[in-house]
Amino acid sequence: MSDLRVAVLGVGLMGADHVERLSSRISGARVAVVNDFLTDKAEKLAAGIPGCRAIGDPLDAIADPDVDAVVLATPGPTHEKQLLACLDHGKPVLCEKPLTTDVESALAVVKREAELGKRLIQVGFMRRFDDEYMALKAMLDEGELGQPLVLHCAHRNPAVPHGFDSAMVVRDSLVHEIDVTRFLFDEEIASIQIIKPAPNPAGPEGLSDPQIAILRTASGKHVDVELFVHTGVAYEVRTEVVAERGSAMIGLDVNVVRRSQPGMWGGRITPGFRERFGRAYDTEIQRWVDAVRSGANVDGPTAWDGYAAAAVCEAGVESLRSGQPVEVSLVARDSIPGA
Ligand code: ISE
Question: What separation in angstroms does the CA of 283 have from each of 42, 129, 134, 138, 313?
Answer without folding.
Answer: 25, 6, 11, 17, 26
